[in-house]
Amino acid sequence: MALIFVLIPLLIFTISIVYFSIQTGISPMPSSLEVKKALIPLLPQKIDGKIYELGSGWGSILVQFVNQYPKAEIVGYELSFFPWLTAWLRLKWLGGVKAQVLRKDFFSTKLENATLVFCYLYPGAMDKLKEKFENELSRGSIVVTNSFTIPGWKPLMTIAVNDLFRSKIYYYKKN
Ligand SMILES: C[S@@+](CC[C@H](N)C(=O)[O-])C[C@H]1O[C@@H](n2cnc3c(N)ncnc32)[C@H](O)[C@@H]1O
């Protein structure tokens, strides 16, 4: 009987993760620790303007951005319920930060005043984001992607990371 109280929540959790992975086209797999470490020296020391994370998963990059840029306005978008809830709780736990995670499709919102955009998505999303970035980002905005390139854009830097997937980080500046 007690097993039911474990199995039912576990089933709901699993169904939710699978449902949103199918809906968004990607699971909420987080960037590796090595990618997160490599991001710190790669990013500018100071940021004026907003930081966006498109598909913020469980919030680990958001938390890292909060620590790296405590005064910056940071916005994460995440559709998958449990990852979004976890990220939301992590930001609440930090308290008093200017970061938020919205349960919204990032394609349905404008990237206003963006200085830095980070994402770890999949090729189909990068195709659509290329157009969004070209329409909405100002010249000089930084875009950093994990594993997937922006078609037609030339990265200023490519960093190969020594993790399980030999991930690559691409660092772009909008022309
Ligand atoms: C591979 S995970 C990356 C998580 C996090 N950015 C990281 O690097 O650790 C991609 C996340 O993007 C979310 N996602 C994909 N498309 C989305 C969309 N259109 N709007 C909001 N979230 C989206 C997925 O639900 C998933 O959690």
What's the SSE blueprint?
Elements: H1 2-24, H2 33-42, E1 50-54, H3 60-68, E2 73-77, H4 81-94, E3 99-102, E4 114-119, H5 123-136, E5 142-146, E6 157-160, E7 168-173
Parallel strand pairs: 1-2, 1-4, 2-3, 4-5
Antiparallel strand pairs: 5-7, 6-7
The protein binds S-adenosylmethionine.
S-adenosylmethionine binds next to helix 1 and helix 3.
Summarize the structure.
With 175 residues, the chain is α/β, with parallel strands linked by helices. The protein has helices at residues 2-24, 33-42, 60-68, 81-94, 123-136, and strands at 50-54, 73-77, 99-102, 114-119, 142-146, 157-160, 168-173.
Structure commentary:
The chain is 40% helix and 20% strand. The model has no long low-confidence stretch (mean pLDDT 96). The longest helix is centred in the first third of the chain and has 23 residues, at 2-24. The chain is globular, with a radius of gyration of 17 Å. Strands 3-2-1-4-5-7-6 form a seven-stranded mixed beta sheet. It has a single domain (2-173), classed as Rossmann fold, CATH 3.40.50. It has helices at 2-24, 33-42, 60-68, 81-94, 123-136; strands spanning 50-54, 73-77, 99-102, 114-119, 142-146, 157-160, 168-173. By secondary structure, the chain is α/β, with parallel strands linked by helices.
